[in-house]
Design brief:
The complex is a heterodimer of chains A (about 270) and B (about 180).
Chain A (H helix, E strand, L loop, with lengths): L2 H8 L6 E2 L12 E2 L6 H4 L4 E2 L3 E6 L5 H14 L3 E6 L4 H8 L8 H4 L3 E5 H8 L8 H18 L1 E7 L1 H5 L5 H17 L3 E7 L15 H4 L2 E10 L2 E11 L8 E7 L2 E6 L8
Parallel strand pairs in A: 4-8, 4-9, 5-6, 5-7, 7-8
Antiparallel strand pairs in A: 1-2, 2-3, 9-10, 10-11, 11-12
Chain B lengths: L8 E6 L4 H14 L4 E6 L4 H10 L7 E5 L16 E3 L6 H14 L5 E6 L1 H7 L2 H17 L3 E6 L6 H10 L2 E5 L6
Parallel strand pairs in B: 1-6, 1-7, 2-3, 2-5, 3-4, 5-6
Classes of the chains: A alpha/beta (about 270), B alpha/beta (about 180).
Chain lengths: ~270, ~180
């Protein structure tokens, strides 16, 4: 299902982030349609508008592709989007994303998809220290907020928030940073994905790197691998999403030239 | 075959010795007579060998995308010049097979499409019976819901009984091309 199909299906009369269930008996929050194959169905229409999500996953599980597709689909629908790249240079990121059919360089040229190097942002702000203070964290939140305000960003990704949090010395500061960032972005009407690197995604694993991100944010999506007789099968699971009913099942994830595709994982194949 | 119903699911039974002939006689009218495009999931043999053999007997394969679940297990097996082949790491990656099939069906032209699964017996080598039965249930319903004709090949006397019972239950039609061996 493409982004445009999603909008039509949901009867959105107010643009991409629209009222999804007109005429439904109970109140439903406006949704930000991701356009990612299968994800909007899992979320019963999309991400509640203005939410901040943690997208945690192991290496190679598809986090970056999912996050890129989320912003690119927004840009395709005419939204201004921002992608803060902290783990790889923006040039390399754009080069990697060119292989996918959902990407069009025109979106960058037209200013709908804005990719920022976090390293460059740190330099601008004079944040060249190994460890951030509360003032540094506030300056960073302000810089991100200013960009969101100036461009009118409605979809934002920070990839990854883990590398950023490594610079923040304690859990309380990380909690404050994420809470302030999430609150500010929600106030601006911006739906955000914070990508987090985790080392394992099993039942006993944390959903985040520091164990504090998951309590603060509105939603948690986990991406990982299932080892099926020596072969790694990617999966996605929505653990938490405030403001909407959603599936909590595991979904097999395949990276195709069209981007991410999801299908329910076989029940007898989850714990082989 | 004189007519096809797009949302139907065919169980195609064949014998151990006539499997290829049954495959060819199934795919040929779909391509030439009904001018359909489709996906062929090849778990029994490599797609390159299959394409070459089909072409040798005059069956054009340009409108078919092959999902090869065999060749990745052979060193050098995935070196192919055919653009219409996708390789899956292993027949145990059942969800990947399904998603790759959907992807290819979504990107190919034409209104009338088919998917051929060759074969249940090959998948049964790698997959546990319960998982295979669950997969076939999902497979059949996925393509019926999308108005895609699905054909599932099997050699019944070598198919796990529980899996075969599920096929009997969920497939809408049965084509039996089994061979009687007189000893």
């Amino acid at each position: 299902m493409g982004a445009s199909d999603s909008i039509e299906l949901l009867g959105g009369s107010r643009g991409p982030c629209s009222d999804t269930m007109q005429g439904a008996p109970q109140y439903k929050r406006d949704r930000c349609v991701t356009g990612v194959h299968g994800l909007d169905e899992i979320l019963r229409g999309g991400i509640p508008y203005g939410s901040t999500l943690l997208v945690g996953g192991t290496c190679g599980s598809g986090k970056t592709t999912l996050a890129l597709e989320f912003v690119v689909n927004g840009a395709m629908m005419g939204e201004a989007t921002a992608y803060f790249a902290a783990t790889e240079p923006s040039v390399k990121l754009l080069e990697n994303v060119r292989q996918f059919s959902f990407f069009d360089m025109d979106m960058v040229d037209k200013g709908l998809l804005n990719v920022f190097d976090m390293g460059v942002a740190y330099s601008w702000l004079g944040l060249t220290k190994a460890t951030f203070t509360m003032d540094d964290v506030n300056a960073l939140v302000k810089a991100i907020t200013d960009i969101v305000n100036t461009i009118g960003v409605t979809r934002l990704v920070i990839d990854s928030v883990t590398t950023l949090c490594y610079k923040i010395p304690n859990d309380q500061l990380i909690r404050d940073f994420l809470f302030t960032l999430g609150k500010t972005l929600a106030t601006q009407g911006c739906t955000s994905m914070l990508v987090a690197e985790i080392t394992s995604a099993g039942a006993k694993a944390n959903w985040s790197s520091f164990g504090v991100e998951e309590a603060i944010l509105d939603g948690i999506m986990v991406l990982g691998d299932i080892d099926r007789m020596g072969h790694l099968l990617r999966y996605l699971q929505v653990i938490k999403m405030r403001g909407t009913d959603h599936s909590r099942a595991k979904y097999a994830l395949e990276l195709t030239p069209n981007g991410v595709m999801l299908t329910p994982m076989l029940k007898w194949g989850v714990d082989l | 075959m004189t007519e096809v119903t797009l949302n139907s699911s065919l169980q195609v039974r064949c014998g151990a010795s006539n499997a290829f002939l049954v495959t060819a006689s199934l795919i040929e009218p779909l391509i030439t007579e009904f001018e359909m495009h489709g996906v062929y999931i090849s778990a029994s043999r490599g797609a390159v060998e299959l394409i070459n053999t089909l072409n040798e007997i005059g069956v054009a394969t340009d409108n078919v995308h092959f999902i090869d679940c065999v060749s990745s297990a052979l060193l050098g097996g995935t070196e192919s010049s055919f653009p219409n082949i996708s390789f899956i790491d292993s027949p145990i990656m059942l969800e990947s097979i399904l998603l790759r099939t959907l992807y290819n069906l979504n990107t190919m032209p034409g209104e009338s499409k088919f998917v051929i699964l060759d074969s249940v017996n090959a998948l049964a080598i790698y997959n546990e019976d319960r998982m295979l039965a669950e997969y076939l249930h999902t497979f059949i319903n996925t393509f019926r819901a999308r108005d895609v004709l699905s054909a599932i090949m099997n050699v019944p006397d070598q198919t796990p009984p529980g899996v075969l019972a599920n096929l009997d239950l969920y497939c809408t039609d049965l084509i039996d091309r089994g061979q009687v061996v007189i000893s």
